[in-house]
Amino acid sequence: MGSKSGSRLRSILALLLLAAVAACGPQQGEPQTPAPGIGTSLENKGSDTMVNLALAWAEAYAQVQPDLQIAVTGGGSGTGIASLINGTVDMANASRQIKPEEVEQAQANGIEPVEHTVAGDAIAIVVHPSNPVDGLTIPQLSDIYTGKISNWAEVGGEDRPIVLLSRESNSGTHVFFLENVVRQGQEENDALFSPNTLLMPSSEGISAEVRQNPNAIGYDGLGYVTSDQKVVAVAVGEGQPYVEPSIETVRDESYPIARGLYIYTAGEPQGAVQTYLAWIMGPEGQAIVRELGFVPLQ
Amino acid sequence: MRNREFVIEALIRVAGFSAIFFVVLIFLFLMREGVPAFWETSAGNFFGERWYPNEDLFGTLPLILGSLLVTLGAVVIALPLGLATAVFIRELAPGWLREILKPLVEILAGIPSVVLGFLGMVAVSPLVREWLNVPTGLTAFTGSLMLAYMSLPTIISVADDAIDAVPKAHRDGALALGATHWQTIWRVVLPAARSGVIIAVMLGIGRAIGETMAVMMVTGNAARIPQEWNALFFPARTMTATIAAEMGEVAQGSTHYHVLFAVGILLFAVTFVINAIASLVVIKGGPRRGGRLMG
């Protein structure tokens, strides 16, 4: 009896360990593979910000070129570029520009990444609809996100604590926000997000919290802002005009937190990739950009 | 006939050993991928207070404390609830109710954690924020609530079996000596079943500390050191959520990649220590009085 239950205990322990180990495994999204056999296929992977846009392009393009199979996956700008470097995708979507070290890695693999700007995007600052704050300056935003300002009263709001929301640190949007808002675009500035910043695994996580929490402040791509969140106007500094993000203010460069959205190809695009890219930058592709809340090219 | 038995026996033996074999393989893999982190980062960095991999800050302290905080909260909530439910099902509920409750508890175990996480994010966290008047509802406590709910079926089933295994003679003896129903449960049945109850708690902790998805969705994932007395009601970032959130995007072979595996080793170590302590308690608990481990 004693030894029997002892061995049972050990087997339970072993199971527990196994469960703990299983919980540590990487949790990657299943890559979508194109249906084999019909015509040629394209692999398009990268930025989560762009994944809806890339899907919409691929669907619309299926009407134009029914033979071409386009497989679109997200995973993040870094993932897309890494796949381009490894030669496993034809086109990498990125919501940030490629880093010099990534270019070096690609060249070491015999791949020359070529950048194509396919759309523009604004990072909108969002708060709860009941929040009376209408405008913030970039230095104020920096102080808020580094934790120097922790109460809405300090920026003209109600006496409430500020709850900071951000995307996870591996998203292109997070890196862009760190460099251009938290560090105010200054090279030598090494400020970091406050450790109290909530890192949300998805855009939906941010909008769900902003919708229901009057203390919250968050940021996300303009295409992800829903009508039940309040968008705050942003000024470069004290005494400068407060500008709301829109297609027009991104185009005339008056909205300060704007960026390009890019597709990278391995070498100058050829054949199907070339015609697809031309279509994306043409009127049909750019109409979809506008539809999804991003900023079309001229 | 003999041959057939030999084959069956060999198959069973292979099956038995394969579990151990895979555990060893997984352990070796974890070591191979994780151990380089210990010389790629300094000890001061690895056990530092700041986790921000983009800037090569790999302080795992907030993650370890976050995991412990959320798990501890979950056990404190789930243990009394689970034990009370098990006692009710086994000792107090009429037979027909028990027949309904038992399978219902087991259905509870089948709810996918991502569903619970979503529920926690949109339904529970606003309530936590309003009722407790805290800045945000995405807190370690919300994670504890979700985890408690998830580990309840385990705790109830195992504790229920342990109580069931207490011989009827114990109860009869206690009642014959004039003990009330409640005295019998509290002074005789539960102490007799205690090793099974401890196993129930252990399994509950194992379930809680390794859970990822629901925790990632409701705890806010802020890698902060819990230092206030009420840190449970602030956001936290657990080891599991960190691995899940960052592993997908990390460059293979980079320091960050190795550190994430090292966090897995830490998780492994923490679970191992908890289990070792619990089994010591069970062994030290003196002669066993009829409480069985499981089923």
Describe, in short, the structure shown:
By secondary structure, chain A is of the alpha/beta class. Chain A has ten helices and ten strands. The radius of gyration of chain A is 23 Å and the shape is globular.
3D architecture notes:
- The complex is a heterodimer of chains A (298) and B (295).
- Chain A has 298 residues and is of the alpha/beta class.
- Chain A is 36% helix and 21% strand.
- In chain A, strands 1, 2, 3, 4, 5, 6, 7, 8, 9 and 10 form a ten-stranded mixed β-sheet that branches.
- In chain A, strand 1, helix 2 and strand 2 form a beta-alpha-beta unit.
- The longest helix of chain A has 21 residues.
- Chain A is globular.
- The relative contact order of chain A is 0.18.
- Helix content of chain B is 73%, strand content 1%.
- Chain B has a two-stranded antiparallel ribbon with strand order 1-2.
- In chain B, a hairpin with a 4-residue loop joins strand 1 and strand 2.
- Chain B is globular, with a radius of gyration of 22 Å.
- The C terminus of chain B is likely disordered.
- Classes of the chains: A alpha/beta (298), B mainly alpha (295).
- At the A-B interface, helix 1, helix 3, strand 7 and helix 7 of A face helix 1, helix 6, helix 10, helix 12 and helix 13 of B.
SSE diagram, text form:
The complex is a heterodimer of chains A (298) and B (295).
Chain A: H1 2-22, E1 41-46, H2 51-64, E2 69-73, H3 77-85, E3 91-94, H4 100-108, E4 113-127, E5 135-137, H5 138-146, E6 163-167, H6 172-182, E7 198-200, H7 203-212, E8 216-221, E9 230-235, H8 247-251, E10 258-266, H9 271-281, H10 283-291
Parallel strand pairs in A: 1-2, 1-3, 5-9, 6-7, 6-8
Antiparallel strand pairs in A: 3-10, 4-8, 4-9, 4-10
Helix pairs in contact in A: 3-4
Chain B: H1 2-34, H2 36-40, H3 43-46, E1 51-52, E2 57-58, H4 61-92, H5 95-108, H6 113-132, H7 140-164, H8 168-176, H9 181-192, H10 194-210, H11 213-218, H12 239-247, H13 255-284
